[in-house]
Design goal:
heterodimer; A: about 250 residues; alpha/beta; 3-stranded antiparallel β-sheet; 7 helices; 9 strands; globular; B: about 260 residues; mainly alpha
Chain lengths: ~250, ~260
């Protein structure tokens, strides 16, 4: 039985060398249990994307450990259970969404009998059913973001890592996505996402982590957020006060 | 292996969809015009010279396609950020590099084969004498040479921009090809304390001249002995293996 889906201990990551050096992540400690939703918040340049890239094994930390399902992020087999949605939805514009999802499904070694109906289901889910055979070069930012979300669900992952998932979405698509995430949670999926959308994070997260300048300022539950006088306040107000006063 | 082939297949699809294939068609038509347009100049009996120049053009055009396609495979994925969702899938960096290499090789082999068929059609239609064994040897050695160049371009692409990579790979080829004799005299026959270093350097450098048997084809010399072809093949396979190993090693350490 796996204790934590994500386990980060004393993580430090430095970009560059010498005078160009920048501490992107400093002493990050974090754990996330199965079936939890964790919102990762912070201003621009806080280190959110860096942390996500470290979780995926795309960046190597200078110090500390990262474990996903108690294994190193570079463990290829581990990625069989991970779905990742990048910050910017850049995909092969010369493919259709269906072709893209087929390409990824094959990399997961999913059989056509399983992936073909699943692709249709996922593209319908993100409201791209009618556009599934159109080349992505004709797509808007919001449509590409929907493709991005669909591709991260192709393997029915146990852990979803989403980097700014709702950026570029209109309010309807945003609400649709929120409902999908909550439904996935009921199925026991673990979700780790970064966002600027504080109200979004407040609604769906079991836990929020606020990051600034590569350091965790606060790790808390949204419903436990209170001001200094013990009065319940919104996550937005709390975030604003915390980041401004730090 | 399956994942490597899926990645390679994707590279080929990219070539077709992005219409990069047009370069191949343009070069092919250029070559066809060169072969069959001899009467345009009003000069008779020049097919023997065309046989010589044509073979060089077949090699050069194939090299252009091989080097340019191999050089942009990895940087293009990084630049467009498509590498992030790709490497977040159960794909190792080794599989990624090998997939890109095999995809590039396929494109390279298709190009060379079509140019070569055009060339063979030309020399046989002109009734030029040619040794089939030599022509087969040339085909094999050219594919090995192109594979080596592709592996070089792929490795350089981790450190250089696409344009710098293409220039350096071409420079390396022409330098080693034209100056191999001078290098042999300078490095291999050097005396003194650094003889060992020079000797080592000479053997480490890629010997592209091994693969060039054009003179034999043009002047109808004897084919290469079997053991020589085997030795060159083993040399190139080992060299390609080493280059790919270094590429994978560097790519695994690269922060993306």
């Amino acid at each position: 039985m796996i204790k934590n889906v994500i386990e980060i201990n004393n993580l430090n990551l430095i970009y560059g060398k010498g005078l160009q050096q920048k501490k992107a992540l400093q002493n990050i400690n974090l754990s996330l249990g199965k079936g939890q939703i964790c919102g990762f918040l912070g201003p621009n340049g806080a280190g959110k994307t860096t942390l996500i890239k470290t979780l995926l094994g795309l960046l190597t930390p200078n110090k500390g450990t990262v474990l996903l399902f108690e294994k190193k992020p570079t463990d290829t087999l581990n990625r069989q259970a991970i779905g990742y949605m990048p910050e910017t939805a850049n995909y092969y514009w010369y493919l259709t969404p269906k072709e893209l999802l087929i390409f990824y499904a094959k990399l997961f070694k999913i059989k056509p009998a399983i992936f073909l109906p699943r692709i249709d289901y996922l593209l319908e889910l993100v409201d791209l059913g009618e556009d599934k055979n159109k080349l992505m070069k004709t797509f808007s930012k919001g449509m590409l973001q929907k493709v991005s979300f669909a591709q991260c669900l192709i393997n029915d992952p146990e852990l979803l890592i989403l980097d700014e998932p709702t950026s570029g979405f209109d309010p309807i698509a945003r609400m649709n996505m929120r409902n999908i995430l909550l439904e996935l949670k009921t199925k026991g999926k673990t979700i780790f996402f970064s966002s600027h959308e504080l109200s979004e994070a407040e609604i769906i997260s079991d836990k929020v982590v606020i990051l600034k300048d590569g350091k965790i300022l606060k790790e808390t539950k949204p419903h436990e957020i209170m001001n200094e006088k013990g009065k319940a306040i919104t996550l937005e107000q709390y975030f604003f006060d915390l980041v401004k006063n730090d | 292996m399956t994942k490597i082939l899926i990645l390679a297949q994707h590279t080929i699809k990219e070539l077709l969809r992005k219409k990069d294939f047009y370069i191949l068609i343009i070069l092919f038509l250029g070559l066809a015009g060169f072969f069959y347009g001899e009467s345009f100049f009003g000069i008779k009996d020049i097919s023997r010279y065309l046989k010589d120049i044509g073979l060089s053009l077949v090699g050069l055009f194939s090299m252009i396609i091989t080097i340019t396609f191999s050089a942009k495979q990895i940087p293009a994925e990084i630049e467009t950020k498509t590498i992030y969702p790709l490497l977040a899938k159960p794909v190792s960096r080794t599989q990624f590099v090998l997939g890109k290499f095999i995809g590039s090789l396929f494109i390279s082999f298709i190009s060379f084969t079509s140019f070569y068929i055009l060339y063979l059609g030309f020399i046989f239609s002109k009734g030029e004498a040619a040794s089939l064994i030599l022509l087969s040897q040339y085909y094999l050695l050219s594919l090995l040479l192109l594979s080596m160049l592709s592996a070089f371009a792929l490795m350089f692409s981790l450190f250089l921009t696409i344009s710098a990579n293409i220039s350096i790979t071409f420079l390396l080829y022409f330098f080693m090809f034209w100056y191999n004799d001078a290098l042999r005299k300078t490095l291999l026959l050097a005396e003194g304390k650094i003889t060992l270093v020079y000797n080592l350097l000479y053997y480490i450098l890629p010997h592209f001249e091994f693969f060039d048997i054009r003179t034999r084809i043009i002047h109808l010399w004897e084919p290469l002995p079997f053991w020589v072809v085997t030795a060159i093949s083993i040399y190139s396979i080992l060299y390609i293996g080493l280059l790919l190993w270094l590429t994978v090693l560097c790519f695994k350490r690269k922060n993306l």
